[in-house]
Design goal:
Blueprint (H helix, E strand, L loop, with lengths): L3 E4 L2 E3 L5 E7 L8 E7 L6 E7 L5 E2 L7 E6 L4 E6 L8 E11 L2 E4 L6 E5 L2
Parallel strand pairs: 2-11
Antiparallel strand pairs: 1-3, 3-8, 4-5, 4-9, 5-6, 7-8, 9-10, 9-11
């Protein structure tokens, strides 16, 4: 099974930018749905953006216009480009693969994530 490793987090000032990377141990070419999720302290994990093979990505309302998800199949890497970061974007960010069949969709095991802290 493909393993995912997140990187690229750090400390950034409000209004700043970061690019997160999610490196896969195998090919992601045929994976239909790969997404970024985040979990802030004391809150539930939530979907940030979802890359859908062959169709448009989905974004949570709170990141629309600021974040862009993309994937490089040649590098087996998923990216999250984050602009105009706000303190409320502070969280641990995770990537994951969503497997769907006729019975529904489920996410795979979570990795370590990468910490993003937005603070002046």
């Amino acid at each position: 099974q493909v393993q995912l490793v997140e990187s690229g987090g750090g400390l950034v000032q409000p209004g700043g930018s970061l690019r997160l990377s999610c490196a896969a141990s195998g090919s992601i070419f045929s994976i239909d749905h790969m997404g970024w999720y985040r979990q802030a302290p004391g809150k539930e994990r939530e979907l940030v953006a979802l890359s859908n093979r062959g169709s448009n990505p989905n974004y949570a309302d709170f990141v629309k216009g600021r974040f862009t998800i993309s994937r490089d199949n040649a590098k087996n890497t998923l990216y999250l480009h984050m602009n105009n970061l706000k303190p409320e974007d502070t969280a641990v960010y995770f990537c994951n693969i969503e497997d769907c069949n006729e019975y529904g969709c489920r996410l795979r095991d979570w990795g370590q994530g990468t910490q993003v802290t937005v603070s002046s």
